[in-house]
Structures are given as C-alpha cells and as structure tokens.
Amino acid sequence: MVITLILVINLNISAKSSTYYLIPGGESIGLQINTGVYITGKFDVTTDTGRKSPWENSNIEKEDIIYTIDGKTVNSIKEIQNILSEYENGETIELGLIRNGKKIFTNIMVIANIDGKKSMGLYVKDNIVGVGTLTYIDPNNNSFGALGHSVSNNYSPNTNGLITGSSIEGIRKALPGIPGEKKAVLNNNIFGNINKNNNFGVFGNITDKSLINNEKMAVGKINEVKLGKAMIMTVTSKNEKECYEIEIIEVKKQLTSDIKGIKFKVVDEKLLEKTGGIIQGMSGSPIIQDNKIIGAVSHVIVDNPEYGYGVYIEWMLKNQ
Fold first, then answer.
1. For the whole model, what pTM was predicted?
2. Which end of the chain is more exposed for a tag (fewer CB within 10 A), N or C?
C-alpha cells in the first residue's frame, strides 16, 4: 500500500493597504463663483401698451442656465443684454438651456419695456457669493474640496471662481424650524481657484501655499466609519478653528457615490449653546473619527438642528 502524504502549508500573507493622506480643513471661506447665467424667476414686462409675459409659451424653469441665444454662447448678464439690444421688439429668439445637466431649447420673445430696454421678463444672476467651510487640501496635487454639497441645484459646464478667507463676526443661533447661520466678513486673501461645482461640493486648486504646510491626516474609508463618537472641525468665532464632539447615529454603507451617508447628532454643549447645532456656513466642516478624516458636514435637519448629515470623504475625492 502506498501512502501519499499531502503537506498543507498555510501562508499568512498580509497585503499592505495603501493609506491616503489629506490636510483637514475647517477654515471659514468665502465662495465667489461665476456660475454662468442662471434664471431665478420671471416677471411681466411693462410696455407702452400694457404688461406682457415674453416667457408665457416657453419651457423655462427656475435655475435653468442660459448658455446660448440663437446659437451664440453667453456667460454673463452683460453679454445677454448686448445680444438682446440687436433684436426688434416682438422678435422670437431661441434659448439654449441647461437643466439638471441636460441641454434643452425653447423659444421666447424679446419685448421692449416702457423705457425702450429689451427684456425677456426673466430674473437672472451670473454669480454666487457665499460662505462655507474648507473640507480638505490634497497635498499630493494641491487640490481642495469644500462645502460637501452643491452651491446650486444646477451646474454650469463653465463653473469657475475663487475661495477667499473670511472671518466669523457673529452667529445667528438655530432654532427648530429656523436655520441658524454664521455671519461672516469676506476678505481679499485668495486661497484658491474653483473649477468644479457638483453635488458633492466645490473643488479646485490651492494657490495659498502656506495652507499646504499644515499637518496631514489619514483618510478613513467608508467601511471604517462606525457608530459612536466623532468630531467636526469648524470656525465659530473670527478665524479660530475648533473641534466639537458629535455622535454618529447612522451609517449608510453606500456602494455608489451619494450624499447623506452619515447621520450625526451634535453633543458638544459648547457648540449647542453657541449655535443651537448645525448652521449655515458649517457645510464642508470635516468630520474626524479615530484620527481619520471620514467625511464632511453637508446638511442640517432644519426641524431639529442638533442633527445633521455628512457626505463620505471618499465620494468627495472621487468626484473632485
């Protein structure tokens, strides 16, 4: 009889996992974004013969972005005014619009108002100025991410702008059903250039190299995020960055990029006394757990501002 011996050797090979490092933010920043021309509302135009609605038969919605007029590209209100001045009263023009990332076309009339100025009866803006919080700086390529959500429900393909320094000069405390906010003064200290605005924040390149010298922190992956203690980094007075304790109460194990992956409750008594919870201007504040940056504050639950949501840092990095 032949006995065959089979030798089984267990090799315990531990693959070294790569760790990515970012510089956590927390600084209060000013946002100055050139959005392209977006529609904020409609109005009737007062003419010599009464009030008229040039948009009455048009397919136009609030926050649509106007990117062409009769095929001519427009990026500012001034460009639109110059083009409209070339048309006769009552002429029909074609608007190229961007709505939820899709291009659509619709017709609208050009009407001369009582002063002779040409109008489409649309309220429009071509920039956004606001306040938020820097989430991270990536020292590997000098890029940054901030805000944790879009500055608008629509996105222009030509988004550009600046992030600047800002100082928090006061707080309007949040109450149930009434959002609070940071009262900030923007300054001329340019931190970086914005080149992207999407559902996960605003992104761009850092130009203030002094910020790149700050201490780095490991990135926490989605499967590492857990229930329990964590903290947010933000500014509530002047330019002083502080850490405040929160408790993560819900974690969604998302497999694809999405927002509101982390639900948390503010438990820091100092922050609750000062702000009432999460307030406007805190969006983008980095969320830290186990000495890793895991996400950013993205939304507040208005009816109970002690509670908020965060977006995973992995999704911000993937979509920057």
1. 0.81
2. N
